[in-house]
Automatic annotation (TrEMBL):
Superkingdom, natural source: Bacteria
UniProt entry keywords in alphabetical sequence: Dioxygenase, Oxidoreductase
Keyword DNA damage: no
Record's protein name: Intradiol ring-cleavage dioxygenases domain-containing protein
TM annotation in the entry: none
A Pfam family recorded for this sequence: Dioxygenase_C
Family: Belongs to the intradiol ring-cleavage dioxygenase family.
Residue stretches making up the Intradiol ring-cleavage dioxygenases domain: 2-82
Record GO terms (molecular function): ferric iron binding; oxidoreductase activity, acting on single donors with incorporation of molecular oxygen, incorporation of two atoms of oxygen
Gene3D superfamilies: Aromatic compound dioxygenase (2.60.130.10)
């Protein structure tokens, strides 16, 4: 997954923004965290931080998460933003996969679009990797 983080104007790239990303494993669980921190225990192994480049871009290489077992939530990737101009981090809409389980009309209309829409289209690349693009608009 990759994308560009923009300032609230939706046009100006935002460098040096920290993104914290976490998601379930292929069984829909936040698993295999370590005891190093509460966040590791709660969010499992599939998590990490990055800093946007000078041109505001970022990229993440990971696996595709699965939905929570036995629930109606779509598979999703959680994202939090730490904007260097703001004192506190904040969440933005989860990334979910267009056309997949749980991404139905009611779900779509209930989204807040915080950070911009997080409903992404997955495409297959020649090397077999799936690709998604999620651009982010910072809050004003
Ligand atoms: Fe979740």
């Amino acid at each position: 997954m990759n994308g560009t983080v923009f300032q609230a104007d939706g046009r100006t790239p935002a460098p040096n923004v920290i993104l914290y990303v976490h998601h379930t494993n292929a069984e829909g669980r936040y698993a295999n965290g370590t005891g190093e921190s509460e966040w590791s225990r709660r969010h499992g192994r599939l998590r990490g931080w990055l800093r946007t480049r000078v041109n505001g871009t970022y990229s993440i290489t990971t696996i595709k998460p699965a939905p929570y077992p036995g629930r109606n939530n779509p598979a999703h990737i959680h994202m939090f933003v730490l904007d260097p101009r703001k004192p506190d981090p904040y969440w933005i809409d989860d990334v979910v996969f267009d056309g997949e389980f749980g991404v139905y009309e009611q779900y779509r209309t209930a989204r807040l679009n915080q950070g911009g829409p997080g409903i992404v289209k997955l495409t297959s690349r020649p090397d077999g990797m799936l690709h998604a693009r999620r651009d982010i608009r910072l809050l004003a």
